[in-house]
Amino acid sequence: MTWIDLGNPLPKHPSDPYQPFRWATGKIQRLPAGSTVASPAVLEVLQQRRTVRQFASLEDEGLADFLWYACRAHETWPSDLGFELESRASPSAGAIHPIHLLIKRPNDLRWWLYEPRGHFLAELTTAPKVLNGLCEHSQQVVDAPHATLILFLAEPGKTLAKYQEGCSLIWRDAGAQLATMALAAYGLGLNFCPLGITGEPWASALAEEGQLVGVGLAFLGLAP
After folding, report:
1. What is the Cα–Cα distance from 104 to 72, expressed in whole angstroms?
2. Is the pTM of this model over 0.90?
3. Model confidence over 41-52: pLDDT tens digits?
4. How far apart, in whole angstroms, are the C-alpha atoms of residue 176 and residue 70?
5. Under CATH, domain 52-221 is a member of which superfamily?
6. Burial class (CB in 10 A: 0-12, 13-18, 19+), 14
7. Whole-number Å distance between alpha carbons of 74 and 85
8. How many whole angstroms separate alpha carbon 74 and alpha carbon 118?
9. If you average pLDDT over residues 208-219, what whole number do you get?
10. pLDDT higher than 90, residue 37
C-alpha cells in the first residue's frame, strides 16, 4: 500500500495574513431565499440517502433551494487572516471554508461561482474556455447530460494562512461539504452523485499563480 503523508496540522502562532483570490466575473444572478418545503427528519435522511445516477434538468428555483440549505453562509465575522470567517451547514477547520463551488447548468455554456455570503451566482467570464475539457471528462465518468455539474475548487492559501501542514484539512473540508450537500439533496427530493475525479488539470488553470486546485465534482438534478 502507498500512503501519502499529508503531515500533522497545527495552528500557526502568529498566522500568516492572506489576500484571497480575485475572480474575473461578469453577470450576477440573485437567488431567492430557500422556500419552506416539507422534508424528512434528519435521522430518516441518514437512513435513506443513496447515490442516484439518473438526472432530469433542475430549474433555477430548485438550485436556489439546494444552495440555500446546503451551502450558504449563516454568519460571518472578521479575522486577522485577511478575510472573513464563516458559519455554514458544513463544518470547516477554523471556520475558514476554503472550498468554492463552481456550477454549470445543462444547456448553458457558462460557469457560475456561488457566493455563500450573499446567496447569489457570479458568472466566471474565463471559465468556459478553461473548463471545456472538464465537462467532457465528467461525462465519461457518468453519462448525465441533463445534470447540473458542481466543481469543488479549493483555495489552499486560506487554510494554510492559519495552519501548518494544513493540506489534509482542505480535503476534509471538501468531504464535509460533499456530505452536507448529499444529505440536503435527499431531503429536498433531488438526485446527487459525487464523482471520484478531482477536476484537475483543468481546475487549477483558472488561476495563473496556482492559488486554486480542484478537489472534487458532483452531479445534481431532479429524479427523471
Report:
1. 18
2. yes
3. 999 999 999 999
4. 11
5. NADH Oxidase (3.40.109.10)
6. exposed
7. 11
8. 10
9. 96
10. no
